[in-house]
Design goal:
The chain is of the alpha/beta class. It has one domain: Dehydroquinase, class II (Rossmann fold, 3-Layer(aba) Sandwich), CATH 3.40.50. It has helices spanning about 20, 25-40, 55-65, 85-95, 135-150, and strands at about 1-5, 45-50, 70-75, 100-105, 125-130. It has a 5-stranded parallel β-sheet with strand order 2-1-3-4-5, covered by helices on one side. Helix 2 packs parallel to helix 5 and helix 3 packs parallel to helix 4. The radius of gyration is 14 Å and the shape is globular. The chain binds 1,3,4-trihydroxy-5-OXO-cyclohexanecarboxylic acid. 1,3,4-trihydroxy-5-OXO-cyclohexanecarboxylic acid binds near residues 10 and 80.
């Protein structure tokens, strides 16, 4: 089972970026925890973990997932609130490659602009508000979704 984990703009700054909101863990810490969780769940899970500050690059990566990856975990970061292109990309592959959206913070409790979400409706579900731990929850949710689809 191959899972693509995508992280959007500014998530490369985790650890030093507003730690009271996003937590003290770096993206590398989160990747390590996710890989540990994947190993515990099944030896068969392969994780590809990427970050980009470029909307175009993220869209291209999503478009290349068909018949390569079984599922996507995505934190679209600020693009959650603005990117119809990212929504379209997720929707375009969703028949074959389901996605779970993850946010470190609970965006519902934050500024009004963050309550607008363009991407979640192209995903099977969403996890938010549990900081880095949410990535392992997202992995479990995705694996459950994939096993129910088979
Ligand atoms: C975020 C929430 C977004 O509103 C914000 O722009 C981010 C991170 C989160 O994980 O909580 O960059 O996606």
């Amino acid at each position: 089972m191959k899972i693509l984990v995508l992280n959007g703009p500014n998530l490369n700054l985790l650890g030093s970026r507003e730690p009271e909101i996003y937590g003290k863990e770096t993206l590398a810490d989160i990747e390590t925890q996710l890989r540990t969780c994947a190993k515990q769940l099944s030896a068969d899970i392969k994780i590809e973990f990427r970050q980009s500050n470029s909307e175009a690059e993220l869209i291209t990566w999503i478009g290349e997932t068909r018949r390569v990856y079984d599922g996507i975990i995505i934190n679209p970061a600020a693009l959650t609130h603005t990117s119809l292109g990212l929504y379209d990309a997720l929707k375009a592959v969703s028949d074959l490659v389901p996605a779970v959206e993850i946010h470190l913070s609970n965006t519902h409790t934050r500024e009004k602009i963050r309550q607008k979400n363009l991407t979640a409706s192209a995903c099977v579900g969403q996890i938010m508000g549990f900081k880095g731990f949410g990535y392992t929850l997202a992995l479990q949710a995705l694996i459950e979704t994939l096993s129910n689809r088979r």
